[in-house]
Protein: Phosphopantetheine adenylyltransferase
Organism: Deinococcus proteolyticus
Amino acid sequence: MNAVFSGSFDPITNGHLDVLERASRIFDQVTVTVMHNARKSGKHLFTLEERLAILREVTAHLPNVRVDSFEGLLVDYMRRSDHGIIVRGLRAVSDYEYELQIAHLNREIGGVETVFIMAATHWSYVSSSMVKEVASYGGPIDNMVPPASARALIDKFSDRYGQRIQSS
């Protein structure tokens, strides 16, 4: 059975990667899809192309994982690409409440089931938003994101990291 793990991945974190690696052991193929939302244009730190490149590098060690993007409803993408299951990662109860509504909606409008995978406990505090916040101040991020994400973040905030190194 094939699955889709979708998100903005701005950037992918170790929590995302944990869920993805575990999903790749459960499903025959997992497609990581980056949602492209024209209404959110300019609101992401990384461009769609940058996010796709980071994901390709981060998932290179997973032979049954591919990277793609889509615009529109996830259920429409699922219909077009012959995927049967949506994979969603959960960190806390608050994630579950939100994701449960989306899972019910996706089943109602698209007949698609969702499988939840709990992120490992030691990644439960990590979110893309928090990582970007820490990086924007030149803070340590290496333990929260894969190396490709860390390099991309440090490059985006090179002025902050340069200041941090000079003041050390």
Notes: The domain at 2-122 is CATH 3.40.50.620 (Rossmann fold). The two ends are 51 Å apart (CA to CA).
